[in-house]
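agent> fetching stored inputs for the LLP docking request
agent> found them:
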Amino acid sequence: MFVSENLGVNEKGHLTVGGTDTVDLAAQYGTPLYVMDEELIRKNLRSFHNSMNKYYNGMGEVHFASKAFSCLEMCRIVADEGDGLDAVSIGELYTAVKAGFPMEKVGFHGNNKTDEELRYALETGVGHIIVDNIPELHRLETIAKDMGKKPHIMFRIKPGIDAHTHKAVMTGQIDSKFGFALETGEAFEAVKEAVACENVELYGVHCHIGSQIFDIEPFEAAAKTMLGFIAKIKNELNYEIKGLNLGGGFGIKYLEKDDPQPFEVFLERVSGVVRSECEKLGIAQPRMYIEPGRSIVGSAGITLYTVGARKEIPNIRTYVSIDGGMPDNPRYILYQSEYEAVVANKADQPRDEKVTIAGRCCESGDLIGENMPLQHAESGDTLAVLATGAYNFSMAMTYNRLQRPAVVFVNKGESRIAVKRESLDDIIRNDV
Ligand code: LLP
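agent> prediction call returned; pasting tokens
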């Protein structure tokens, strides 16, 4: 009935998430409100790491891409599940450190890391630094020497795979700001340089072909290409690459028509390709890393709003305005991403109207979506936008000096606050 398996309707006709009444949540914590279902997050993490055990003999790690959703409580849950993290800034690293995360299970990314970030990564003992470019390799070599460390690094490679997804989230093709190109020989030259470095150890290679990808073929193709590269390094430089990181990007269900494959199938097929290619190429099976973000948290989250004004413009459209919008969910204005929405207090009624859901910013493009099927929404109703767990809270902003919403975790009918709503004083905290 709904796009995410953790949603339902209770005897009051209210939408539930993880067994909790969403209308009660809105009343208790206020709106706008991000709600995350802990049980589904844990289930998603387990389906990846259990499949890694089943199909790849446990010779791998699942690193949750914290850019999709990062806060102390999320880091604690990932640590408790025994998984790792992908962090992409000093802020994401700091969050992990403060949550007591085992930093040796963290991969540190970024196409333009600062010296301060590299130093912090070494100081806190991150497991791998994923190096993006030659100047960064040189800076890291100097900083590592200075600090008396020898970090493990991976190289971010552009495998030249075209993943069929929105152009803003495509990253594996040659025209990308991320990483070293394979086809120009740039990546191989970089490997030669890294192998000669005294203060870093080239441990692995990494690729990430894009995000919200439904097909498994591009991942299989990327794995093959990367293994070919590992074999070339072995044959021509007599150097063994021990780690293969295939990034994230697995698509989730936002709309009824979306039909993602189960994560297990993804890992079964990709592991199969890795094993058979290794045999064919005569190389040892690398340790495998994956970095799912959206697929861990996307379906586990919803956002609750209160409906305010309703504007019916005859023969044009009906606007339903809510108390949030682009600042808490910028994905429509950025990517024209589509969502499903439900009037939470009328969830047992048919969605027989088509409306535009508008935010409250001084910006005409501030919409959650257009032409969205919805129950008849009136002022005071609670609106739920579904599958907002990824890249909503983490991309939230404070345009118009709006306060960022609170985050609540639910678990089997219980709720608890994980991030407080910003106060007015938070808004002026750094003003002098
Ligand atoms: N690993 C790397 C190196 C990445 O760059 C990303 C995402 C991931 C893993 C996780 O990908 P996921 O499993 O979440 O697809 N803001 C955009 C998505 C940007 C993704 C950036 N990189 C959105 O809202 O759709």
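agent> quick read of the result: The pocket of LLP is lined by residues 65, 67-68, 86, 109, 169, 208, 211-212, 247-250, 291-295, 331, 335, 390-391 (CB under 6 Å).
agent> awaiting further instructions
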